[in-house]
Amino acid sequence: MKSNAEVMTRARETGVAIPAFNIAYIPMVGPIVRAVVDTDSTAFIEVARPEWVKFDAKSPAAVIDEFRKHEDPAHVMIHLDHVPVVDEDHLRVDYLPIIKDSIEKGYGSVTIDGSRLALDENIEVTRLVAELAHEAGVACEAELGAVIGHEAGPAPPYEELYESGLGFTDVDEARRFVSETGCDWLAVAFGNIHGAVSGTSKDKKKQEARLNLEHLERLSEATGIPLVLHGGSSVKREYVLAAMKMGIAKVNVGTEIRQAYEQPIRESGSVVKAQESLYERTAWLIREYFDVAGLRSRISGEEKAT
Description:
Number of helices: 13
Structural class: alpha/beta
Oligomer: single chain
Shape: globular
Number of domains: 1
Strand order of the largest sheet: 1-2-3-4-5-6-7-8
CATH superfamily: Aldolase class I
Helix content: 40-55%
Radius of gyration: 18 Å
Order of helices and strands: HEHEHHEHEHEHHEHEHEHHH
CATH architecture: Alpha-Beta Barrel
């Protein structure tokens, strides 16, 4: 398997996106890897700070230890998702030790999330992490714009957010950000929203989202690097498929697979049933939603894109 950075570059070049499955509970790792292998696809296994703080992913170390039990380098890669500088509860996070430790343990790429900072500070923090990652041969994902949803309390109505463009990544800021930070990939906001991680709303069906593809096209032209769609659950499929052709090379999926795992646990208490539910949902997402069954050969270069 190519490096995480090479896989992302290849995905952008071929107009596809790599699914990135977020781990909220350690027993989720095995079924997801099995689904990726059985569909001969390519995917990231990833964990974000909210998943070990708000759920039961334990830690980045626990996730990569479980990943090592199931890993198949031809099909799956390990990525450290959101490590925020300021978290969803508006508290400062000691982010650097988390990122350094994860790199040392073998994560092939890391995400520094300075999106709640002012632009200049986000640039400064991201440049620091990108340099650190590159020294270790690891890729750096960053975030610019406001992908809402993780914060506690009610969010503004979705249509109001979409129509106003509130939180959308600014095109000129994105151009400057990429130039001055050296980040490898950029997570952008253009209609996408995160699933809730707090309170009763975390168990509810996620708001269906749509994407402003014209805005994405401008961001892609301005940055020239692989872009990332955070909050991939519940985005209308036609928007995701179109976004793949406009520079989105990675799509994060958290809420949909987490809920597929949690529901059987609540109903029966059976981890085995939860894992089977998760496997089936992941395989469906790969085959039917993303249409990336058989992706491995395209990403590896064994087969030319059609």
